[in-house]
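Example (one chain per record):
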Amino acid sequence: MKLQDKMSVLELIEEMGETGVLGAGRIHHATQLFSQMIKDKETTVFLSVAGPLVPGGLRKIIRDLIHREEIDVLITSGANITHDLLEAFGGHHHRNIGYDDEKLCQMGVGRIGDIYTKSEDFMVFEEKITEIIADIAGNKNHLTITEFLAEIGDRIDDEESILKTAANKKIPIYAPGIVDSMLGLQLWMYTQENELVLDAVGDMHELSDIVYASPKVSAVMLGGGLPKHYALASNLLKGGVDAGIQVTMDRSETGSLSGAPLEEAKSWAKAKCGSHLVTVIGDATIIFPLIVAGAWEILSK
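Predicted structure:
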């Protein structure tokens, strides 16, 4: 691998491609495939996001992909939605505070690896999201989760927000595990005295329509868990995805979905026989920005 002064991201990735093996070869392969996915207007692109990727620095990248209409469906955990809203309401994700967790608790600071959030920011989040939930429920108290998230996006002002941008661009966000988050906790607290029903099954009507109407579907899966499975399983209805990129640090030996190689999805008809699949092992906060920057450089030529 040959390095030069002032190399662009794509030039570096192409040098990785010349090596062609291990992680370097896979990043090159994934970058080429992602550029093909977003260039092909007949391909519907799913992006699934698990883990703390919004507080981990990918918020603006995900937002920009939505703004550029380079993804068509976002599937995410409730936690990433919560952290997008925390920033939309003026909160921050901090670093370099320290690792004494008992002291952090006394200070009102929560830790995610080396990311820190202050309880005062969550207090603002709780106040503002409760007002938004009440406003939504005052107009309609039975919605799908996707409809609910679009309603939230319409009610916030931060143009850098994933939810706001998705609402503006009419890009659906699916969060089948929304209750398992701080947003879910606020939903539960609101429904103790008020009526609001979120219909998780109802989301499948729209999602299945998207799958059936798409000539081709590609999926980019950052991390595993429920978002990855929702992306793949929804495409089982039509024989599986046509192409897929997975970025994960989980291992396959336990048999968990998060660490499963994408080829395994073929046995379940979640990926088509002959589909173009790439798994990159590593930290998505490092690897995905490289893939996106490289793909954008390819498309700008």
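Caption: The two ends are 23 Å apart (CA to CA).
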